[in-house]
Each structure stands twice: as structure tokens, then as C-alpha cells.
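Sample intake sheet
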Amino acid sequence: MAFSPATTLARTRAGRALSRPHNWMQLAKFSAVGASGYAINLAVYTALLRGADFHYAAAATCSFLVAVTNNYTWNRLWTFHAERGHVGWQGLRFLVGAAVA
């Protein structure tokens, strides 16, 4: 079975990426930020629903926004600190991606 040059390049790039410890550390940081966002989402949702007597839809919307803000901030400052861009455009793209997901 012959591979095309594009397939060979992709396999080589993937192999190089998987062999770099920095990428695994970045994945671990990204996972930790995601886990913290999940915990924050649940905590804020529960506090708003039970403590502040919000409607469940309003509590879910607010907790989502708080968790997305947490994730964006930590990913920008800690996980992907080397990749800088305009904070507003990156934030908007992050929010849209989180909303679609």
C-alpha cells in the first residue's frame, strides 16, 4: 500500500508532535483547565439554582458564562501563554467554540 506525500507528511508531523514532551504538558494543562471549568460550572449552577433561586435556564446560562470565562483566562495565561493575539478576538472565538461544543 503506497502512501501519498501528504499522508507521509501528516504522519511525520504527527509523529514529531507526539514525541515532544511540551505538547503532552500542554495537553495536561488544557485538561486541568477543562476540569476546573466543569467544577466551576456545577458549583455556580448549584449556587444560583438553590441559593439564589434562579430559574434553571438562567442559572445554566450564567454558570456557562462563568466557566467559559474561567477556561479562557487560564488557557490564555497558563496553557497557551506563548501564543498571543488580540484578547478580544481570541475571547470571541473561544466563546463561539464553547457555545457550539
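Comment: The CA atoms of residues 42 and 63 lie 7 Å apart. The longest helix spans residues 21-51.
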